[in-house]
Amino acid sequence: MYKAFLFDLDGTLTESGEGIIRSVQYALIRMGRPCPPPEAVRCFIGPPLLSQFMSFAGMSEEEAGEAVRLYRERFGVIGLWENRLYPGIESLLQRLSRTGVRLAVTSSKPDPYVQRICAHFGLSVFFDPIVGASMDEKKAGKAIVVGETLRRLGLEQDPESALMIGDTAHDVLGARACGVPCAAVSYGYGNETELLAARPRYFVHTVSELSDLLARLAEGRES
Questions:
Q1: Whether this model's pTM surpasses 0.90
Q2: What are phi and psi of 96, to 5 degrees?
Q3: Which of 2, 75, 122, 189 could form a disulfide with 45 if both were Cys (CB 3.0 to 4.6 A apart)?
C-alpha cells in the first residue's frame, strides 16, 4: 500500500506551457538567437533549464546561465501566471485528501516558483512537503528532488511505498533512480512514445483516470 503520492507540477497539476514557452523565446531573442516556434521549445517544460539551453541551443554553460537569468527575468514577473490548473485536479486532490495517503509536490522547477504557484492556486493546503529545485540549478535533476522529498517524508528507506506522478520520461527515470515507481499521464507535455519506453508502472490518459487510479491505490487495490 502506498504511503505517499509525489506529484510533478508542470504538465501534471498545472497547464503551464504558455508561460514557460514565452519566457524561453524571450531569453533566446535576448541572447541574439532566432525565435523558435512554440512547438519547438515544448522540450523546455520539465527538465532543468540550464542543461536544456545547452542541448537545445548549443550554448556553453556560461551562455546557458545567462539564458536562464533572462528567462527568469520574464518568467518571475509574467510567465509564472500564464498558467492554469487542469480541469478536475482540485476535485482529485480533495478526494485523495480523505484517504490518509500523504501528498507532496516534487518539481524540477525552482523552489520559490513552486511555492508561489501552489499558493496562488490554493494547492498548498493539500501538500506537505512541497519540494522544488535550487535556484542555482545545481540541485535541479528529478532524482535530486525526488530524493529530497523522500527524506522529508521519512521514506528514504522505503521508496517503494511512494508513487511519483508525472508527465515526462524525465519524471519516470528520475523517480526510478531513487527506487520510486511512477504513474505517467499522457495529458501533459511529455512524448507518449518516450513515456512508454521509460516503462512507468501505471499509465493513464486523463485526470479522471488518474483520480480513479490513485483512489484505488490509496485503498490498497491494484485493479
A1: yes
A2: -70, -30
A3: 189
DSSP 97: T
Where in the sequence numbering do the catalytic residues fall? Answer: 8
Contact criterion met (CB below 8 Å) for 134 and 122: no
Which residues pair with residue 103 across a beta bridge?
5
Is a pLDDT exceeding 70 seen at residue 35? yes
Domain limits, CATH 3.40.50.1000, in the chain: 4-15+83-218
**Residues spanned by CATH 1.10.150.240 within the chain?**
17-81
For domain 4-15+83-218, the CATH class is alpha beta
What's at 30, amino acid-wise?
R
Q: Which CATH architecture has domain 17-81?
A: Orthogonal Bundle (1.10)
Cα separation, 85 vs 18, in Å, equals 13
* DSSP-assigned beta bridge partners for residue 163: 5
